[in-house]
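From the shared-data thread, chain only:
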Amino acid sequence: MSAVREQLPEGRYGRSADERADRKLRVAGAVLGVLFLGMIGWFGWHHVVGSSISAEVIKFDVVSDTEVQVHLEVRKDADVTGVCTLRSRSEDGAEVGRKDVRIDEAADRIDRVWTIRTTARATNAELVGCTAR
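Structure, as tokens:
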């Protein structure tokens, strides 16, 4: 009596259905992975480049125990408005003054001096950040 073989000889007739399915899953996974990385890259680029307002403290002057003047240069698109937050600190690092300044002039470069009122003598002034509105 001879034995009946139910499977095809290995390697003779190409890939099995399982191997083809595994390959399709790997290709689909690679495509989805590339799309995901592209999406993350686009969001990152948009976040960095999409900032439409930036500023820099040119200098500051401690005028008195209750006042600091901050010379700020703002760069933005002419049609953009926003808010920049300034703060000053005392010698021990405590925050003694904070001011939100509106940037609503229709210019692409603004060079102005703002005054921060303080609760004690400040030793510095800094830009916390700017946001477009």
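Residues 17-49 form the longest helix (33 residues).
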